[in-house]
Amino acid sequence: MPKINITDVILRDAHQSLLATRMRTEDMLPICPKLDAIGYWSLECWGGATFDACVRFLKEDPWERLRKLREALPNTRLQMLLRGQNLLGYRHYSDDVVRAFVHRAADNGMDVFRIFDALNDLRNLKTAIEATKAAEKHAQGTICYTVSPVHDVPGFVRMGKELAAMGCDSIAIKDMAGLLTPYVTAELVKALKDSVDLPLHLHSHATSGLADMCHLKAVENGCDTIDTAISSMAGGTSHPPTESMVAALRGTEHDTGLDLEAIQEIGMYFYQVRKKYHQFESEFTGVDTRVQVNQVPGGMISNLANQLKEQNAIDRMSAVLEEIPRVRKDLGYPPLVTPTSQIVGTQAVLNVLTEKRYQTITNEVKLYLQGRYGSAPAPVNPTLQQQAIGKEELIDCRPADLLKPELDRLTKDIGPLAGSDEDVLTFAMFPEIGRAFLEQRAAGTLQPEPLEAPKTATSEVKSAPTEFKINVHGETYHIKVTGAGHKEQAERHFYFTIDDIPEEVVVETLDELVLTGGTEGAVKKAIAGKRPKPSQPGHVTTSMPGNIVEVLVEEGDTVTAGQSVLVTEAMKMETEIQAPIDGTVTGVYVSKGDAVNPDEVLLEISA
């Protein structure tokens, strides 16, 4: 048999799974010559959450990262993860945007496009596959593996045949939650290889501790390429170790032919790099067999844990993990992968924290139930569907068929801030943070989040000096801010030194100046005074910590109970907040962009 190929995910999914996608390009480039010499089938280095993290947290241009990696890895295929019609965002884009994105990614150096849809609705892969083939690049059709009453091996084989008919160059089994077991893997791989004459790749996370065995069974049954991660960034919610799989297959008919010692040297490099990002390590990065029951991917567990901590409700984690399968059933058993993992997870958190299921329904759940993400794998809960969308018309066509071309509008909207087609596409993926990124770049104020904060704090000190001297009553003190708690917290911990003596204080925010992108030095004043605590029926609050996306009413407006008055965002999902009573808006305590918490009054309505 031909040797087994390796795709190493060290530059994308490994740090996405373990370090919240925070690895910077500066820590990738020095090791690229050694990675390039290994002889991998490909290196996964882009797509997934990397684009979002570059713009949102690292303040790096993701396109520039791609160009630098292309230059540094001249002998190795570069591979990305693409969410079909969702591209790298969280909604469906029009076909002209999808084609433009694929075209620019190919021109900037991408070779292999692993294309998937969260619902396994292959209609949502059509345009991305066509665009990849038009760019003369490798289109890898992807099957999202999951377990439910409506998912089985024959169904996945049918998908494989359809992907082959769509012109894919290879097929990937994407086991994003680590649900595969060794003997199911053997059955699935053999069935696909017997039915589809295309190279087969396996991508399986090690969350449940079974991925290494699944890889071996896959190889024995004809799988051509397996995904692995350098050992210092492997295991847990990441992937099987590259070195271990190379050693396991060495000297057999499945020998990878790769130099084990050379890979081990690379492993020591990333062992040191990982320490740099200790503050982003999740406590849920070890083996967790619960995934075989709740089917929650490791990265999703980390997000849920952070959200519950901000709510001071980490003790409700077990309840949320129990609620997720129930929400998933109500939504027709979607595979839990971006964006459906966020859609299901956020709704489950809301159901638990409000202690009343579906009292609050996110906008994304409403759109999902309407059919705007595609066709659910199984019938959805009809009562929930009626509650969420009322008399709105259900969609049964390919959702993108309803979208008008939008690239010209996006180009006009971002205007001169975009210096290239790539900039327009960055804005398209993430309008709010994309615009802020481009404004900050133009002003020369891009600043990545700091890495020196204590493990117990999240650095958010971005809008003020972090080292300075002050003079108080004739005495001069040297102040250095070393970290801060989440800016969303009303009572926030700040860490600093005064004349090199460490100090920690708790600050109760009453008023705050927030720096905005654009003209240097421009500031806007936050809402003055602390928001009141809810105590009356007309006090409008949120169920989860998040940010204000839109304020839909003004003071003096008349509203009716159930009318949408605010739109908030949490865990990248939007929720409309309704008026609790009929009446007149007598107080507005928030504006667009504000961070909010559940114990605050956002609007006041008087009967």
Structural account:
The chain starts with a strand and ends with a strand. The radius of gyration is 25 Å and the shape is globular. Helix 5 packs across helix 19 and helix 14 packs across helix 15. The strands form 5 sheets. Strands 1-2-3-4-5-6-7-8 form an 8-stranded parallel β-barrel, surrounded by 5 helices. Strands 9-10-11-12 form a 4-stranded antiparallel beta sheet, with no helix packed on it. A 4-stranded antiparallel beta sheet has the order 15-22-20-17, with no helix packed on it. Helix content is 34%, strand content 19%. 45% of the residues are buried. The longest helix has 17 residues, at 260-276. It has 4 domains: 5-276, TIM Barrel, CATH 3.20.20; 296-401, Conserved carboxylase domain (Cyclin A, domain 1, Orthogonal Bundle); 467-508, no CATH class; 539-606, RNA polymerase II/Efflux pump adaptor protein, barrel-sandwich hybrid domain (OB fold (Dihydrolipoamide Acetyltransferase, E2P), Beta Barrel). The chain has 607 residues and is an alpha/beta fold. The protein contains 20 helices and 22 strands. Residues 528-606 form the Lipoyl-binding domain. This is Sodium-extruding oxaloacetate decarboxylase subunit alpha. Keywords: Biotin.
Could you give a quick summary of the protein structure above?
This protein is α/β, with parallel strands linked by helices and 607 residues long. It is 34% helix and 19% strand.
Text of the CATH class of the largest domain? Alpha Beta
Largest sheet report: 8 strands, parallel, barrel
Number of strands: 22
- Beta percentage is 15-25%
Stated plainly, the CATH topology of the largest domain is called TIM Barrel
How many helical elements? 20
Task: Give the count of structural domains.
Answer: 4
- Considering the protein shown, what is the CATH homologous superfamily of the largest domain? Aldolase class I
Arithmetic mean of pLDDT: 88
- Rounded to the nearest angstrom, the radius of gyration is 25 Å
Overall geometry = globular
- The helix-and-strand class reads alpha/beta
Q: Tell me the span between the first and last alpha carbons.
A: 77 Å
Helix content: 25-40%
Poorly predicted runs are 453-463, 511-529
The second-level CATH architecture of the largest domain is Alpha-Beta Barrel
Strand order across the largest sheet: 1-2-3-4-5-6-7-8
Domain Pyruvate carboxyltransferase: 4-264
Protein name: Sodium-extruding oxaloacetate decarboxylase subunit alpha
GO molecular function: oxaloacetate decarboxylase activity; pyruvate carboxylase activity
Domain Lipoyl-binding: 528-606
